[in-house]
Design a protein that fits this description.
single chain; mainly alpha; 4% strand; flat
């Protein structure tokens, strides 16, 4: 509801030129706020903001450091989107509980990259990461920073050729049986 509240406040800020697009989307012809659209947009933005913290931390950091309204040197389309997203982010994330954890993680990663383990931080003797099929760039950066100080092992899923061969689907078996003139039972015994 923080994002919905920030959107609602933005609709009342008639002086902000980038909020005109929001008003066009969320306010009907009679000037009434479409609360269903507002909540839908708030949910979409909240999910996007959560992903941005992980996938685009440099964008979020720029939003927090440059809340003054100056335009960062990005593409015109991103500047257009960023112009109204930045104030919504800054209003919604001001007291966001997870922000402190993300800021602490960023601070820790920066210290580890500089070769320093901050006071009060006890790194484990080793770190094992299991079953990850993909990682956002910041998490890779965090693991690299930790690996400068302790062994980090990634245990990745990599099916063997035998496993893949055993997973032949039924359609393939039937096709092969028909092509070789075998019935399915005979083919299964041979396989």
């Amino acid at each position: 509801f923080r994002v919905a509240s920030a959107l609602h406040q933005a609709l009342g800020d008639a002086g902000h030129p980038s909020h005109a697009a929001l008003r066009g989307t969320l306010v009907d012809a009679n000037g009434a706020i479409d609360h269903a659209r507002l909540l839908s947009m708030a949910l979409t933005l909240a999910e996007a903001f959560d992903r941005a913290e992980v996938d685009r931390p440099e964008l979020v950091q720029a939003w927090e450091l440059d809340a003054s309204g100056r335009q960062p040197p990005w593409s015109p389309r991103l500047v257009e989107l960023e112009a109204w997203q930045r104030p919504i982010w800054n209003a919604a994330a001001r007291d966001w509980p997870t922000r402190a954890a993300w800021k602490a993680l960023h601070t820790l990663v920066q210290a580890l990259e500089r070769g320093r383990v901050p006071d009060g931080v006890a790194l484990p003797a080793f770190l094992s990461v299991f079953g990850v099929s993909s990682l956002p760039p910041f998490m890779v950066k965090a693991l690299q920073a930790i690996a400068r100080h302790v062994p980090v092992t990634l245990h990745l899923l990599s099916p063997s050729a035998t496993f893949i061969a055993e997973r032949v689907d039924r359609r393939h078996l039937l096709w092969a049986a028909a092509e070789k003139g075998l019935d399915e039972a005979t083919l299964r015994k041979a396989h």
